Write a sequence for this structure.
């Protein structure tokens, strides 16, 4: 059984996925539940730079969708597969590090692009899903959560020079926040409006959040 979770950057997809993994493991103690994120299928930064799309990291063309679809097909076929690991600390795929997905009974697939329909693809990621969830909220709220997350990353990054956010953590905080606001407006909000929100209606359930990540509305698709 494969469960897909989609939604904007910073809307709380990862937290939702982890909570569902924990709950499903408790409800079905005899079942093996595993979780993967599509972050592991973003092209490495070196590839993105070579393609000239580093500024569009997170957009559909920045993902190796063929590899993701092949991976899901192998999992569905009962094979053990290795998933590339993405680190938000280094802002890149970690070379040589993988997570093994070993024939789970329930697989959760979380990512901004899980419900998208890429051009020139005969098979979509969502074709593998038995059920899908879209985590939703007003974009102004998501921006607030995005900036809060950015600040929390800065609060720990100054201790580690290898951390991608170290350069921002040791500098002027207001300038760093201005940069983050710019990234939200020119990258993440644009991605949300053009490529993520249009997939919302394809989900089986929409979880709508209000302030403090409280779910105030749940929409269930009629079948």
């Amino acid at each position: 059984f494969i469960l897909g979770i989609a939604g904007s950057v910073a809307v709380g997809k990862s937290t939702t996925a982890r909570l569902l993994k924990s709950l499903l493991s408790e409800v079905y103690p005899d079942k093996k539940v595993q979780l993967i994120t599509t972050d592991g299928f973003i092209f490495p930064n070196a590839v993105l730079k070579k393609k000239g799309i580093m500024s569009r990291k997170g957009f559909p063309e920045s993902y190796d969708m063929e590899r993701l679809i092949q991976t899901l097909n192998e999992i569905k076929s009962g094979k053990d597969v290795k998933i590339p690991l993405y680190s938000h600390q280094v802002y890149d795929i970690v070379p040589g590090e993988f997570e093994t997905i070993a024939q789970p009974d329930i697989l959760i697939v979380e990512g901004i692009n899980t419900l998208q329909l890429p051009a020139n693809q005969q098979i979509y990621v969502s074709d593998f899903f038995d059920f899908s969830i879209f985590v939703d909220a007003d974009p102004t709220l998501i921006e607030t959560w995005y900036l809060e997350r950015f600040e929390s990353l800065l609060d720990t990054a100054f201790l580690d020079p290898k951390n991608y956010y170290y350069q921002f953590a040791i500098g002027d905080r207001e300038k760093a926040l201005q940069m983050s606001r710019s990234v939200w407006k020119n990258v993440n909000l644009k991605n949300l409006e053009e490529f993520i929100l249009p997939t919302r209606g394809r989900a089986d359930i929409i979880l709508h959040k209000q302030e403090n990540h409280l779910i105030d509305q749940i929409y269930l698709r009629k079948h």
Summary: The beta strands are 2-7, 33-37, 80-87, 92-102, 106-110, 131-136, 205-209, 215-220. The mean pLDDT is 95.
